[in-house]
Amino acid sequence: MPRWAATSEETPVRTVVKRPSEAKAERWLALFHERLRERGLKSTGQRDDIARVFFETRRHISAEELYAEVKKINPHVGYATIYRTLRLLKECELLHERHFDETQARYEVADEPHHDHFICERCGKIIEFENRDLERTQRQVARELGATLSRRRVELYGLCSDCKRSPQ
Ligand SMILES: [Zn+2]
Ligand SMILES: [Zn+2]
């Protein structure tokens, strides 16, 4: 197949798959320590345990899920400390707080590149994707409004391909 043909078949939607790696988690933890120092705060054993689990864990974790994971390595950590640490991580700009179609917030590591989310309304799966056209359109809308974009959020809801295939 000629190259141009292959390119034209390419879908502009790219799903983002990021696997947690320990080395990466350590780098994020070091960054957390740096930002805490900038704010005149100290890292504590409990904060570190929570932050490490957060950085290592799968994405879009809820506070309750994080609490359950942290409990496995440090049973002394309380729920309030989980919340405070999540707030601190947010202040340090190391996490994004997401409010998908539900009451509880979900958290993910604030790394680049920017991505959007598809949320399956049946199984709850969250699929991350990037779409340049979508981003371009949003910038264009802002331009036409004479506005400047500071942040953007796109959430798509529906049935994922697995759920679509299998009847309930
Ligand atoms: Zn699904
Ligand atoms: Zn995400």
State the gist of this model.
The protein contains seven helices and seven strands; from the N terminus they run H-E-H-H-E-H-H-E-E-E-E-H-E-H.
What does this structure look like?
With 168 residues, this protein is an alpha+beta fold. The chain folds into 2 domains: 17-109, Arc Repressor Mutant, subunit A, CATH 1.10.10.10; 116-165, Ferric-uptake regulator, C-terminal dimerisarion domain (Dna Ligase, domain 1, 2-Layer Sandwich). Helix content is 46%, strand content 17%. The chain is built from 7 helices and 7 strands. A 4-stranded mixed β-sheet has the order 1-6-5-7. Helix 2 crosses helix 3 (45-56) and helix 3 (45-56) packs across helix 5. The chain is globular and about 45 Å long. Residues 1-8 have low confidence and may be disordered. Bound molecules: zinc ion (2 copies).
